[in-house]
Amino acid sequence: xxxxxxxxxxxxxxxxxxxxxxxxxxxxxxxxxxxxxxxxxxxxxxxxxxxxxxxxxxxxxxxxxxxxxxxxxxxxxxxxxxxxxxxxxxxxxxxxxxxxxxxxxxxxxxxxxxxxxxxxxxxxxxxxxxxxxxxxxxxxxxxxxxxxxxxxxxxxxxxxxxxxxxxxxxxxxxxxxxxxxxxxxxxxxxxxxxxxxxxxxxxxxxxxxxxxxxxxxxxxxxxxxxxxxxxxxxxxxxxxxxxxxxxxxxxx
Length: 252
Description:
Layout: H1 2-18, H2 24-50, H3 56-78, H4 80-83, H5 95-123, H6 133-160, H7 164-178, H8 192-196, H9 200-212, H10 224-251
């Protein structure tokens, strides 16, 4: 029964997401590409000076793709419960199901988008082959898990306090700049770096780039253990909140 519910929800979410507009599926590829082109146009010289031996375009692309999968998974999952409220009339469908399925769809779409963009960059002459594929995959997966954990918590908070969605969108604006999308963690001076490294996204992007570039040296404090530790705690708290407030969310 659970498999049937998950399959039906996945198909429903996929059709809704990809048919929301005529270019919905194109925008999945254009969003990170537009960011890369803009940042390279504005700050290309700076990136070239700060990351020796690493192509600036690929450096920015890996950071953006890692950040976008975490951000989109968290923000889109946060609205899953309210978007599927009508389905809770069926007792087989629980609020947590909608969040998990939407997060899975987001991860699937971002994986396809990442592979297509990296293939396009390779055809353009960039070296995009990761020198340590397992580390890159582990970091990418960890960022998705962080987004899932945040999405689980935010989906409950958004039902209890509708203003949460607006605050989340605002909060991700500074996170964009302090997560290492544009600069490596080593470029952040102490003592600010130790504060910035409380952000799990920065750990994820550092390790993602360490998996792609042999010349890239992540900050000594960065690691997958913090990334996965944060993700597991966030997922546990998110699931606990869903268990605690499931009845209230269905009633609403």
